[in-house]
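Quick one - inputs below.
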Amino acid sequence: MSLNGDGGRVELQECIRNPGFRDAAADATGSGSGSGSGSGRDSAAVKLDAEPAYETYTQLKPYAGMPKEVLLLYSSRARYRVPREVLFWLTVCCTLALLAVTVTIIALSPRCLSWWQVSPVYQVYPRSFHDSDGDGVGDLRGITEKLDYFQLLNIKSVWISPFYRSPMKDFGYDVEDFRDIDPLFGTMKDFEELLTEMHNKGLKLIMDFIPNHTSDNHRWFNLSRTRDPQYADYYVWTDCNETHPKPNNWVSIFGNSSWTYDEVRGQCYLHQFLKEQPDLNLRNPRVRKEIIDLIHFWLEKGVDGFRMDAVKHMLEATHLRDEPQVDPDKPPELVTTEWDLYHDYTTSQVGLHDLLREFRAEMDIYSREPDKYRFMVTESYDYHEVDKTMMYYGTPLIKESDFPFNFYLLDLPHNTSGTWAKHLVDLWMTNMPRGKWPNWVVGNHDRSRIASSAGQIYVKAINMMLLTLPGTPTTYYGEELGMENINVTESQIQDPAGKYNASASRDPERSPMQWNSGMNAGFNNKTNITWLPLHPDYETVNVEVQEGDEGSVLSQYRFLNGLRQSELPFQRGWFCYVFADANVFSYLRELDGHKQAYLMVINFGKESVTTDLSSVQELPNQLKVLKSTNPVNNGKVFQKSQIPTEPGEGLMIQYSTYTRFHPNHPAECYVSEKACYLDTIDILYKC
Ligand code: GLC
Ligand code: MG
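Output:
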């Protein structure tokens, strides 16, 4: 005990002691050392009358309550003070360590995948999915009744083709009122119920959004043709000759001139699609404002994203010059289809991406809350001009769509072979900007069903590839069953494109969804009508039958989609080409630090072959099939020098090794965002 008598303070090391206090130990020994030395003096720390306090203390019973002075006395003893200090510094150290670990984890954690990356996008064509009221046409309630089906498939993202109020000249892609639901599909209440139910089940709803055109029944068009000052420039108008209304050689996607004379206004208006789908003048700021208001309207309602329709057509050159002919010698009067011209002035005009970026920025306002990310996918067929498509990904600094649809796999049937499949996949992978997220489409409401164009024997192989490539797959309703095109006779044609040119009809791929073997395949059960005929194979190709069959297209789809979402190498791993020849396309998925890797060997050819992968040192010698499109091969073990496949057979081989393929073959491998896996604690980190 060090004494410092100055100013009446008695210091017990660093503590200040009450001068009027005698401690119990001192009492017991009778030594009053120090305790009395300050009695009667003022203490700056504790003011007490020494004697009465002394009396009180001696009467204290153990645990009867400890005045501050006593506490101070005891607490300053080494046996209390040291542990206290140790605990204090331990707490400080632990807090700092925790902070450091948290910061490190945040810094090292790769970004979480968003909902549109985790699940495939499933496209519902609402006319054909499920008809709840039995009028022969599918509707919103019909979709609500089938939400469990998406859960069965492990699908989270559902894109529904248009259900706005529409005269249905292009089955909803001709919108009369963007803020209303067509009575054929239901009411706004039905929509709200559908959205609420979807959200309750953890599903996301992606709406079709059509910024390029409206219906000619739209209020804006009626006001524009009467030259209402506010609306006069809402569409693309030009003077033309009433009897020969062709101000230039531009043609509609559905054929013939893209100009139609309007008697009310006495001018021609532009329509890149049907004459009942006049193109909006998106150079007019008022029109852009209208579009943005619509985006707000639906986002406020809670929709989770938009599929932006026909975006490359949004702007046209204002000079209206003729487009160059593909065959300059063709007589101009024979220039009637989109394939006859280079679309230098009607598609992909300067300013287009600024428009989409503006839309994207509006969507981002609604994306800030957790799990409320609003997704945008753009539709643009740019065919061999892949650079044009890639522009829709935006730049590292300015966001645009999350991805533009990748339509290249639609060309798979042109030449079913391993090298062709690899070529089509590579077209996307080599051209996609670094760090972006790929996606794959094998069918939609505008293109023949893949089962029909490629052939039924390739259906499982194509689905296997779709679900194991990196990025987001898109599944058009029925592809998970291997549904095929229907035959539509000339008199049955519904599609306007088919009325212009029967071979261009899109009806064959729009037939009613095949739910079961009952009446109308379960599409509806109240009447015997369906807006398009059913495919005659519905008694065997339907959800109910396939659900009960482990070897079915549906069961394989469910299995692979489940695996795709649970296995990190599929979500976050490297994608590497291993091999391709006239028959087989082989690639692998692996993740650094993750023991399980997957080798895919898919035969898109016409011959049964044995593939020799013995030169691929990174693969183990024995390879066990986890899943074959042909269930009899599940579980078989092959030597890597002899991997047999039949035409249309795909093998998913799971193998265990920490040896990675990508470091030795960097030119053959891609990853959107690099991540590594730490097995011991089951976490992913940036590497
Ligand atoms: C898109 C749609 C197609 C429609 C066209 C006009 O290409 O997918 O079905 O006819 O736009 O809106
Ligand atoms: Mg346009």
